[in-house]
């Protein structure tokens, strides 16, 4: 049993950092908690930025994670950033000149949107989406636009494209790869997304690069795309991934490799320093693999688990990732990590915008995808967690209730 720390500093006031602070108090920790957030907001959720906030259906305050009374129990430094960690002295130096001492330090610094360079344009011409301010800037541009170009066919690009289309904009989406969400979606889901967005009127260009562009005198943009005729658009938005904010850790001499390297409890190469959320490259006990997940669920779960670990507790494992996305009228959920070693069986018909796909290996479900079938995914999570044996025929048959399979004896 480790001695309870007297002071904990959390750098990063996003999903992971906010939940870590909340969990520390919920677990009865009575020491000093200092939470640094370099944005001028309390901790907030980012998924609504590409959907409800961008569409004007939710105010920024609707994204805030907690009530204000949480911050009465800690020192919240809003709009403050950390610039250096002095590990030998257990000190965090801030941009304002303030120095914070710690017994435990949590780095929940998240990531930043990856910029895109297009010949002929300045960086400011291509809008990125990561913060509330970014969402406000894109929303303002959309309100004055008729046509928009999206660079990137991943989750953010597709969600922004769907929101733009819902607002009545003409949308052209350009993706370098030959499929949508190729890094995260299995082929069945990738093909479905292509069909979904095409049916909703989005002009999709796969295996396509914007070669160059020019800003016209009226503020619009002319895009030169491979051998196609030029496109003229009112706004350009890019969503091509995230760069982990690991510079602070790197400069402090911590082990960094595609994020801050941690063990299964979030401990870095310095036992007094932990990492969680989008910036953490963590060991997953069940698979033995090291993974850096970029998701709402992972940031929250890691924030909670690492907070408990800093207090010497043994948190519950959270090896099976879960992800969701809303695009047009489709609610898409993924649990686990589908891969080519698994056998896919489908329940329902993808063309109906309501189906589930289950990915089996050695007689049990290892991952699942659902579109507008959240109950299927809820059951799939339990079947995965309990390693219950199932067959492809049972899963594919709509007359077999999935809940009935939970009564089978686990492996």
Number of helices, where a helix is a run of at least 4 consecutive DSSP H or I residues: 10
User: By CATH's scheme, which homologous superfamily of the largest domain applies?
Assistant: FAD/NAD(P)-binding domain
Quick check: average pLDDT?
A: 94
- Strand order in the sheet with the most strands: 3-2-1-7-19
Secondary-structure map:
Blueprint lengths: L6 E5 L3 H12 L5 E6 L14 H4 L19 E4 L3 E5 L4 E4 L4 E3 L2 E4 L3 E3 L13 E2 L3 H12 L3 E5 L3 H12 L3 E5 L12 H13 L3 E3 L4 E6 L5 E5 L5 E3 L1 E4 L3 E3 L2 H5 L8 E3 L10 E3 L4 E5 L4 E3 L4 H15 L11 E6 L2 E6 L7 E7 L4 E8 L2 E8 L2 H13 L5 H5 L5 H4 L6
Helix pairs in contact: 1-7
What features would you describe in this structure?
The model has no long low-confidence stretch (mean pLDDT 94). The radius of gyration is 23 Å and the shape is globular. Helix 1 packs parallel to helix 7. The protein folds into three domains: 7-112 and 242-310, FAD/NAD(P)-binding domain (3-Layer(bba) Sandwich), CATH 3.50.50; 115-238, FAD/NAD(P)-binding domain (3-Layer(bba) Sandwich); 329-405, Enolase-like, domain 1 (2-Layer Sandwich), CATH 3.30.390. The protein has 411 residues and is an alpha/beta fold. The strands form seven sheets. Strands 3-2-1-7-19 form a five-stranded parallel sheet, with helices on one face. Strand 25 and strand 26 (364-371) form a beta hairpin. The protein is built from ten helices and 26 strands. It has helices at 15-26, 52-55, 132-143, 155-166, 187-199, 247-251, 296-310, 374-386, 392-396, 402-405, and strands at 7-11, 32-37, 75-78, 82-86, 91-94, 99-101, 104-107, 111-113, 127-128, 147-151, 170-174, 203-205, 210-215, 221-225, 231-233, 235-238, 242-244, 260-262, 273-275, 280-284, 289-291, 322-327, 330-335, 343-349, 354-361, 364-371. The two termini are 34 Å apart.
